[in-house]
Amino acid sequence: MSERSQIQMLFHGAVVLFTGLWFGLPFGLAVSRGWGEESVGAWHVAHSGTVAMGVMLIAIGAALHRMVLRQPAASLLVWSLVASAYGFAFGFLMRGIAGVRGFQPSGPASNVVAFTANMVGVWGSLLGIALVIYGAYAALTRTSTGLKKG
Q1: Residue 75 burial by CB count (10 A; 0-12/13-18/19+): exposed, middle or buried?
Q2: Residue 19 scores a pLDDT above 90
Q3: pTM for this one?
């Protein structure tokens, strides 16, 4: 894995983490000003989910150099997870602002937009984590066959 890939994951993870921390402000307001259970729940998910995605990007980025993947797969891993994190963050934001969930591609335009963002998040994370599993397993297999002792 290239050092640049690790830095990309660190950078975008920090941006997503920072965004999630900002989502804590409307969460706090929703709780303290009694915006209602639905709003509190939406902003709680936006805050905690986006923070978790940022931390995940940083953690996987830190472990990239341990994985065994060819460059095209490594790039796909990085960019699928980055797209996933931003997709989920935007979907969470839409839920908090517009009060939509984005679970189905129907209803008002804001719901369709949230659904699209959520699908980017879902498919990006599934692909990215599948590549993490593959790259980690390849590294584990290489280590266990004696090609790389640690």
Answers
A1: middle
A2: yes
A3: 0.92
